Structures are given as structure tokens and as C-alpha cells.
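Hello,

Our lab assistant flagged a job as stuck in the queue for most of the afternoon. It eventually completed. Since we weren't sure the result was trustworthy after the delay, we are filing this so someone can double-check. Below is the sequence as submitted and the structure that was eventually returned. Let us know if re-running is recommended.
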Amino acid sequence: MTPIEPIALTVTTAAVVAAAWRPVCQRIELSLAKHRSLTGHSRMAKRFASQVPGYSYDGDRFFSCDGAPADIQSARRTGFAELAATLNARHQKSIALTKQARERISDLQFTGAYRVPFQFSRYVREHFSIGAFLDSAEGVSVTDLDGERLIDLTGSYGVNVFGHDFYKSCMAEGSARAAGMGMVLGSCHPSVAWNAEELCRISGMDEVSFHMSGTEAVMQAVRLARYHTRRKKIVRFCGAYHGWWDDVQPGPGNPMPPGRVYTLQEMSGAALQVLRKRRDVACVLVNPLQGLHPNKAAPGDGTLVDSSRSAHFDREAYTRWLQQLREACTANGIVLIFDEVFLGFRLALGGAQEYFGVKADMVTYGKTLGGGFPVGVVCGKRHLMKRYRDDRPGDICFARGTFNSHPHVMAAMQVFLERVQTPSVQALYAGLDGVWNSRAEQLNQRLLEAGLPVTVSNLSTIWTVSFTRASRYNWMYQFYLRAHGLALSWVGTGRLVFSLNFTDEEFAEVSERIIAAAKAMQAAGWWWQDASLTNKSIKRGVLREMLRHRFQ
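-- returned structure --
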């Protein structure tokens, strides 16, 4: 063997080891960038969810699952019966039609079953229902089929930014403008060109494509990112929602196994490290709503096992995170997509880009932008929006939809975009954070002074209710709020969405009802607690229950 041969062998061996070690290091870095909870591990979460046994509490266990003494159980039974009688009598017509429609509408079956933790669900549904039908809406209120007027805190799932009358007017005027064209599709109403120019100005992007929903808009943004980067992987952050399609909703709720998506921990240096190094990531999706509850799934009362739910928004910290994210994506050629389907036009006219001072490569809008009609929009840089290659005519990125750019939707969008820039609407943005942060602080102070175990956190006009005393019955609060005249979405107190047009007087009325509902719930014994009842003991008790039912 020549003297050079051992050196060559050593070099070759080192190269082989390095090549083999690189994917191992990448895998370790990826694991460290994931959240330690099940929320950050889609495959494990799916396996866990598939093993959770279904069981229901009977009448006795329903009122005593936290070990409450007999007198508290009795108070709860009385309170439950009174609450059921109130809701059933007050909303008879709305409930009757809901029960009838539920036989044909699977969505109603799902929302009814998952309104509260599954152990309590059957008993609740046996004794009272929530009406899913309304007759009218105006101002900050809705009216059901029984003529009951409720203050609306649903936000129409994010659509209602400026109040019901605003959208009714946009829809009516938009339909009048497009009446001559009717439902002609394929050819465009003139409002399409106007909307494109205006959206490019607002978003700071070069081009626009119109779609039929926010989910479709995100799908197209991701598809374009993959097309132009020639990479396949998506990065989303733990707990974020980007629509219901397979790639962006891995884990429970999706029958397909997690595919070409990495779910990383938000506001994490380890996640940034992954983004700086990997060469297979096409895009990063950011839903700015996550700033209220980073790395946690969207809160809903159906998952309220104990009182550990929490939320907090730190604008400065989240801004720094987005700036770091922007830098990492730029350095590695990754497309940064702001998913503003839910928050767009709520925080500022220019959305999250203006609010946080961070520029994305692509932005998706939906919900409110249609002026009350369904819509999805992608705004992006010119080189990312192009769907074909001049030098390879067969290499295209296809996207289409029969109802894209529907004349009535586009006309209503134009009305919406015209009106959001009027002085009266712009005045709603003035001091927006100060107004709503102050309202939250004042309500929290009143709740504290009243000795009530309820607290609120907010990102502007989007609120989450949390609870400060360990309990298995926090989910009951949504029904007391409804009994006190507040309309909530099916997720209950996890997300209260105010429209920007709430006056101080209207908000004061909401505060009174929130406090009154909490007092009624406390008086009925639902927040009873002794020294042995903690969030940890509750979780352990529920786990023991599930194991017992699973292996019986």
C-alpha cells in the first residue's frame, strides 16, 4: 500500500460518515424544533386520538365527577334544570327547526356533539339544545326565530369586522351594480380590474388571483410556492389553522397520514435553525392569529378538561419573531406566506403586514373581503404568481374554479374596498389596540373584584376566556352566557369575536352580561373546589377514566 492510500481511505471514510451523519443531524434538529406536546407531533396525536374511548357520564356522574359533596351536587342539578328550562322555553322555534334540520345536515350533528367535552355531551343534548337558525341581524345584534335579540359575539367566524349593517349594505349595493350581468361566469365584471389594482396597492404586492374561499386561496399560494421553488415541504406552526385540506391540517380530523408538512414550534430559535439549513422547504405559513395563543390549537369549550387554558398577546415579542422569520426565509429562498383569511382588515387596513411592519412574499385574504359574500384572494410578488414557463410550455401550475370572480362577489368586494377607506370606517381603526386593551383590562378588574374565576385575553377584538380556578365544568359557562343574551359560535368561550363598531355603551352591556352569567354559574356550584382539586389531579383522573374504559 502506498503512503497515499491510507490518507485516501481515511478521507473517503470521513466523507461517507459525514454524508450519513448529515440526515441524522437534520432529523435531530427537526425534532428539537417541534413542540413537546401532542399538538406538535401530528402522527403521535393521530395515534393517541384513535385510542381515546367514547363513554358518557350518567346523571349521577355528570354532577359529581370532581368529587363535589352532596349539597353542591344538589345545587348543580337545580341550576342545570333551571338553565335548561330557560333556554328551551326562550328559543323554542329555533331549537325545533335545528332538531329537524340536524337529521339532514351533518355539520349540525358535528357541532352539536362537540360543543362540550365528550363525556358530558350526551346528557347535555338530552336536556337542551342550541338553536342554529336566525331571522335577522342589525347593529351588533342578531334575532332568532323566536324574536329573541342576542348581542353577537360570534363575529361570523371572522367575517364581521365592521358590523352587520355594513355588510348588508355592501351586499345590496354590490348586487345592484352586478344585476345587469347576472351570473355570467368566465368573462369578468369591471369591478374585477378595479379590485385587483386596489388589492395590490393595499397589500404591496404585484399580482392577484381570486378564489372561492380562504382554504382555496391558501391551497393556491402553497401550490405556487412549490412550483417556483421546486421544493415540496411546507412549514406550518403548532396549533395554527390554514383551512381544512390535507397538507395543512395534519393529525386528528384528517383521515390521511401527515404528508409533506413540518409542524414546528412557533417563536422558537430551533425552528429558525431548521429554516436556515433545510433545502426542501418551499414555504412557511403564518397565521397571525396565533400570536394570541402560540403553539396551541384553536381554543374551544369542547376541549375544556380543566382550567389550564391560557392566552396572552405580546405584540412586541411577536413582531420580533416575525422579523426573524422573515430573515430566515429570505436567506434560504423560502416563500413566506401570511395567511390573513381570518385577520385581514381587522387589525389594520394593510393587515398583519402593516400591523407588525413585516413584509411577506404572498398574502391570502378571505372572509370579510367579499363584503359579506364568500371569497378567497392570493396577492403575491410577480415572479411567484406566474403559472407557466415561457421556455417550457408544458410546465404549468394550474388553478381554476367556476365561481372565481363571480360578478356579485366582485361588485360587493369593490363596495367593501371603497367603504373601508371612508373617514367613518377609518375612524374605527384609530387607537384600536388602546380601546380594546382597555376594555379587556376593565372587565378583568371587575371580574377579579367580584371574586369570579374568569379572565379574558385579547388580540384587538378577538378574545379568549380563561379560568383561574381548577374545574371540570368551565364548559358550562357558554350556556350561562347564552342565557344572558350573548350569541356565541359553536366553540363557545374559546373565541369571542367583536365587530369594530361596538360603542362604549354596547360593550358595557356585554360586560354586565358576562359578569351576571359568571355569578349565576358560581351560585349554582359549578366552580366548587377543595384543596385536592387541581388541574394536575383533574388530568390524571380523566386519564385513569379513559384507560379504564379503553381496556375494560
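-- support follow-up --
The delay was a queue issue, not a problem with the job. The result is valid. The mean pLDDT is 93. The chain is about 45% helix and 15% strand.
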